[in-house]
Design a protein that fits this description.
single chain, GMP Synthetase, Chain A, domain 3, 3-stranded mixed β-sheet, two-stranded antiparallel ribbon, 5 strands, Lipoprotein
Length: 212
């Protein structure tokens, strides 16, 4: 409404010399490339921009200028709700064709998904399951999947553990190696295998650099 008022006053001003508080406010809000040092960072002089009204169905939007980032935003690494993330992955996985059951364990840097399928195209189904999990978790996560339902109990047992549990790396590494006997889908990228591991990750072994 503020910008609309500005445009109306501007047009009227050509004939009547329209002035007023709304015109001044709108003019202050508009910045040109030259006024902000050649970088179009924001259309206003505010340091950040975001949707204040969190209505159902509304997109999420947040924008910061580099020199106005809050101190806690710069130093804290965002964390995810692992239980909710596991819920989303499992619920999406069982909606895939030929998948009847799915169990997911989410740690601090891994997602382990065990599913049951009657698909005759195991590689294709594995790729779909892997990509489904990868679409939910942060990019740095590794994804390990298996269509061996006997491994469901293994990852369920790990749900009682924590990232700082004793010998967690060695314990989970055995299960991950067992999971990798099942199809894992296609490579994530030219530099990463199907699980999102680089050559360095593979040389160090599963989980060796992830849990501290």
């Amino acid at each position: 409404m503020k910008h609309t008022a500005y445009i109306v006053c501007l047009l009227a001003g050509l004939l009547t010399g329209c002035t007023g508080a709304e015109t001044n406010d709108a003019q202050r809000d508009i910045k040109t490339d030259k006024e902000i040092g050649g970088k179009t960072i924001s259309v206003s002089d505010r340091k950040e921009s975001f949707n204040q009204d969190n209505k159902n169905g509304q997109f999420g939007y947040v924008r910061y200028q580099a020199n106005s980032m809050p101190d806690d935003t710069q130093t804290k690494v965002p964390t995810i709700d692992r239980e909710k993330t596991a819920h989303v992955i499992s619920s999406l996985t069982v909606q895939l064709p030929h998948v009847q059951d799915a169990a997911t364990l989410v740690t601090d840097k891994e997602a382990l998904v065990v599913y049951q399928t009657n698909s005759k195209r195991r590689e294709q189904t594995a790729d779909q399951v892997k990509k489904t999990a990868a679409s939910v978790i942060p990019r740095y996560y590794h994804v390990y999947i298996s269509d061996n339902p006997n491994l469901v109990q293994s990852i369920e047992n790990y749900s009682r553990l924590r990232s700082d549990s004793r010998d967690i790396s060695d314990i989970m590494a055995d299960t991950i190696q067992e999971m990798k006997k099942s199809p894992q889908g296609g490579p994530v990228s030219e530099d990463e295998n199907a699980n999102g591991e680089t050559d360095q990750d593979q040389a160090q072994g599963p989980l060796q650099t992830n849990h501290k």
